[in-house]
Description:
This protein is of the alpha+beta class and 71 residues long. It has helices at 35-55, 66-69; strands at 8-12, 17-21, 29-32.
Amino acid sequence: MSVKYELIIYWSEPDRFFIVEVPELPGCMADGQTYIEAVTNAEVVIQEWIETAQELGRDIPTSQGKLLSTR
């Protein structure tokens, strides 16, 4: 899967994990012991978030490309 949503990735010292937030998909977050693991987990969670939204008949936000729009 090609991630087209903005990802916010940071290290959480208390948790000792990298945290990934997907702000365009409410409540969509993942973590991992390494940066790559966290991003890989985020890709899985994004797909699951989209599948769940489809099953529930909810709208799926399109990526707004927030990082690109600030240039």
